[in-house]
């Protein structure tokens, strides 16, 4: 009975892990540039110094959905969205290059171009710093043009260019920080000049809220089934113990 109990418990735990993945997707349905995670369960044979007849469940995150989310028009000069495939290069919390689809850019107090999360945007030669300006334009290739503070409308200067990359999805992974990283530690991806930006737009999450809710409800029923199975095993174990006591 104890072996059956552990099998049922394993299924319940893995169902909870799967719910965590889908709940996180649903929680980020309105997060700019968020990429949804897939979830799958598979059987894992228990090996040891005996015949491997036991099989436990294991939930895993096999991949991330990289399809494009909805394009939301904002009209804001600092908002950009990647058209089709590709990513905007940023520096993560450890100063390493990472990649995102979130183009809700801002200029911080130090004049640095950052994302809505405060991550520095990568330019041609590192972080992008902007002088005091009157207006700013980001073109489709990521070039940043400004009119300096107090300058005339025709005094346009190109300051830098946002680094845009387009890696093979098999060579990248989504980290716990929500950013995209190369599977090869420390690898810096090359610029792809074919990537285009849409200025005045941001890209929404690619999460399908209805699909995620359906998965969560299905997993809830699976979890209830695991609990009922554990209750049945406990009752059967108690009944067996009573029979043994009577025959003792």
Task: Choose one word for the global shape.
Answer: elongated
What value does the average pLDDT take?
Answer: 89
How much of the sequence lies in strands comes to 25-35%
Element order, helices and strands? HEEEEEEEEEEEEEEEEEEH
Radius of gyration: 26 Å
Helicity range: 25-40%
Structural class: alpha+beta
Briefly summarize what is shown:
This protein is of the alpha+beta class and 248 residues long.
Describe the structure.
There is one protein chain. By secondary structure, the protein is an alpha+beta fold. It folds into two domains: 2-65 and 207-247, no CATH class; 74-203, no CATH class. Helix content is 26%, strand content 27%. The strands form eight sheets. A three-stranded antiparallel sheet has the order 6-5-14, with no helix packed on it. A hairpin with a 2-residue loop joins strand 9 and strand 10. Helix 1 packs antiparallel against helix 2. It is elongated and about 100 Å long. The mean pLDDT is 89. It holds the Pfam family Flg_bb_rod. Its main location: other. It comes from Marinomonas arenicola.
